[in-house]
Amino acid sequence: MILQVFLLSSKGDHLIYKDFRGETDASIINIFYEKVVALPGDQPPIVMYHDGLHLIHIRQGGLYFVATSKSNLSPFTVIEFLNRLAALIKDYCGALSEKTVRMNFALIYELLDEMMDYGYVQTTSTDILKNFIQTEAVTSKPFSLFDLSNVGLFGADTQQSKVAPSTAASRPMLTTRGDQGSKNEIFVDVIERLTVVIGSNGTLMKSDVQGEIRVKCFLPSCSEIRIGLNEEFSVGKSQLRGYGTAVRVDECRFNESVRLDEFENYRILKIHPSHGEQTVMQYQLYDELPLAPPFRLFPTLERDPTGRLLIYMKLRCDLPPKSSALNVSLNLPVPKGTLSMSQNLSSPDQSAELQQSSKSIQWDIVRFPGGSQLSAMFKLEVPGLSSASLLEVGPASLSFELPKHTCTGLQIRFLRLSVSQPALPQRWVRYVTHSDSYTIRI
Asked: Closest Cα partner for 346 from 385, 371, 307, 314?
């Protein structure tokens, strides 16, 4: 039994507050935030306790989703409910952020009213809730007086108009009213998160890939979706399938709505889609990458005659030449006594700064083409520089995004729909790899 549900921003602002039973007051909101910010670690405990009240929370989209209870209920049940609430807000509002919550607070309160009854969960199904939700989602669109991005010479459509924009799936799902024809689309995203540890000698010490296939459906009606994976896709250290390069994962889990009667022989997933977003498959690959890690770092540490610490770094992108990495950011801890820094970067599309609060160098690269190499020279003023100070340098950590790339090699062979409407739905398949933890020891 859940007593309260509330949403807070990262700064502690009250966004949503719903009291289902009236047994506690709203002061618990400030108590929760004080407990969170007072903890020394970056990751607060999921379950906390205060004066007979259990506080269970998750954090998504920079927001705190919190539920309170006095009974000894299963934390995993509440966590699953909060995750479903976050997913529903994303489905109905198009995105999950503080701005979208503020703009759609009436819709979120209506969702909570339909999902909960006197503290007991009634349903979290998107298909069921869409029959009861009457409030329309409010979306924000950047103001443009003349939007000519998709108009070519003499009014002809450009090729850009035939490509799904990056925000195409970040829209409200199809409601019971409104324009149905303009949202006759389906998105399939293959998302992977890469964890890598590279030793100081360049040896790959650890590698881990966690991936998932997400489906976001805007179709008015669809009886079945068939998603074909690589014919050589195998789970576990089994024999190779087919005649091509094997695509192997160690573990694989499927959504309960996925039918697997054709998966063993043909690697086909059959899904009965529901409106909104759902994860149909999750997989993991441990300690074995089929390809080389996307980045290599070659650092050099020296001490110049004036006593300054010189850090020379070469960063190489080992992606194919036609691919690129986006939003690459390298963070390198430096000696605690560092006062200032001067820099020399190999190209103008880079930036770097010394972050005094964390005593680290932040090196940012907006776009990093595959097969290329960038370099940077940093000169640090470190009073009393010694051999012990050099030990404070590193390890380096990278964050990045690799569009149109998967580390496991997983690909979608085909996406087939069983639809009843005459208009052919638009189908989009996208691939992206994010860095979960990419560490390079110095």
From this structure: 314
Q: Structure tokens of 116?
A: 């909960």
Distances 386 to 105, 356, 361 between C-alpha atoms, Å: 57, 20, 19
Helix (H) or strand (E) holding 369: strand 360-369
DSSP conformation class of 424: P
Asked if 249 and 259 touch (Cβ cutoff 8 Å), the reply is no
What rounded mean pLDDT belongs to the chain? Answer: 85
CA angle centred on 66, ends 64 and 69, rounded to 5°: 170
The confidence score (pLDDT) of residue 305 equals: 85
Structure tokens belonging to residue 390: 């050099």
- Name the strands in the sheet holding 373-381, side by side, starting at the edge strand that comes first in the sequence: 295-303, 309-317, 373-381, 340-345
pTM exceeding the 0.85 threshold for the entire prediction: no
H or E stretch covering 258: strand 258-259
Residue 268, pLDDT above cutoff 50: yes
Cβ atoms of residues 124 and 117 within 8 Å: no
pLDDT the model gives residue 173: 56
Q: Higher confidence at residue 277 or residue 252?
A: 252
